[in-house]
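Before the break, one more example. Copy the sequence into your notebook; we will annotate it together after we see the structure.
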Amino acid sequence: MSSPHVWKFFRTGGLDQVALETGADLLALPQLNQKLWVALSCPVKRLSLDEKTLALIDADGDGQIRAPELLAAVKWGTDRVKDAGIFLQGNDPLPLDAINDATPEGKVLVSSARQILINLGKPDATAITVAEAADTARIFSAGALNGDGVIPPDATEDVDAQALIKDIVQCLGGSIDRTGSTGVTEDQVNKFFAELTAYVTWVGQSGSKDIAILGDATDAACSAIKAVRGKVEDFYALCRLAAYDERAIAALNQSETEFLALAAKDLRITAEEVAEFPLARINSQRTLPLLDEVNPAWVATLTALHSAAVAPIFGEEKTSLTSKEWRELNSKFAAYETWLGGKAGSTVEKLGLARAKEILAGKGRDELTALLAKDKALEPEFKAISAVDRLVRYHRDLRALLHNFVNFADFYSIQTKAVFQAGTLYLDSRSCDLCVRVDNPATHATLAAMSKAYIAYVECTRP
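Here is what the structure looks like once it is written out:
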C-alpha cells in the first residue's frame, strides 16, 4: 500500500484549514476527510468567478456545485496535464506544453488547441487563453456541419435538399444547432418520412375518391357540418319538446328578463351568454333557419354551413333545414367522415398530396442521410474543441474555487477577497468588507441571529 498523503494545515480565523500547495495535494484531495473542508457546496451564480466555468463543474445542472462535482473536475483536469500543480497557479493562458500528450486524450487536446490557434491566425503561439478557446468554438461552429447532429438548410448547396429540410421544419418543427440556425435531426428526418408514407398510403386507399361526393370541396363541407353539429342537435331536441307541448315554447326560448340583463352589459356578438342561446327561436315545426333570424353569435358558422354543405346538396335557394333534411345531409357525408377518422400522417398533410409523392419519389432522403453521416464524423473534433475550452477554464479558475471551497484562504487574506464577497459597504464612515448577497433576509435572519454578530441588511438600488 502506498503511504498516505501528508497534509499541511494553517490556522486562521480560529480554524485549522488544509493548505493546497502542490499537485500532490490536488491528486490526494479525494482522500481528505470532508469534515476538514470549510465548505461542501457553493452556487453557480452570483460569485466573482466565470459562470461558464462553474456551469461546467455543475455536472447535474442544479445550480449548486457540491464536493463530488469539484473532485470530478479536479480529476478531469489533472488527468490531462503533466503537472497537476499547474491548476494552483490560476493563470491565463495555458501553455500547450503543459498538456500531457502521452495520453490519447492529451494528444487530441494539443492537436485541437494548435488548430484553434491556427484558425485565429496565431500558428506560432505556444499558449492558449480562455478568450481564444471561446472565440474558436464559435468560429468552428459557424460551419454548417459542426458535429452537433443538426442539419440546417445551408448545410448543402442542393436546392431540392434545402427545400426538403424546410418542409420538415414546417411540419415537425426544427432543432437549433450550435450556430443558432434551425435544422433537422436524424430522428426528425425518420419521423417525417414515416409520416409521409402513412399519409400517402391513407390518401390512396381504395374508394376514397368515390365517397368524396363534392370532390375537393368535400373536406370543407365536413368541417362546416362538424363545427355546428352539437348546436343543431340541441336545437332539434328542443323543437321536439315544443312539438310535444306548445306550452313549453315560451320556457324553451329566452325570457325577456334574460335579454334585459344582457342589455345592461357591454354586449358583443360573440359574448358567451349569447352563444349559449339556441341557434334560432324554438318552434314546433322543427325547422332551422340558416341565414335570417338566427343567433348573432352563430351567423358566420351557419352561413359557412349553408355555402359549403347545404347549397351544394340542396341548392342555393335552400335557406332552412328540417330535422329530416339535417339527418339526410349528415348521411351523405358519413362515409367520408369515417374515412377522415382514420387519417394517418396528419402532420405532413399541409404539404399536399402532390408534394408528398414528389418527396418520396426523389433522392432527398439519401442526401440528408449523407449529410447526417458527415456531421456525425465531425463530432469528435468539436468535442475536442469543447474539451480545450474546459481545460483552459479549469487552469484559470480552479485555484480560486478551491481556495474558496476546500479552504477559505482568500477570505482570510488581506490582499484577496473571497469569491462570495459582494464588495465593500461604507456605513457610518467605516468600510465593511464582510458583505454577501442575501436573497431572502427573513429566512437568513433566523439563523444569522444565532451567530451573535452584528448584521446590517441593506437594500442596494441603482439609479
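The first strand starts at residue 9 and ends at 12. The chain has 18 helices and twelve strands. Try to locate both features in your own notes.
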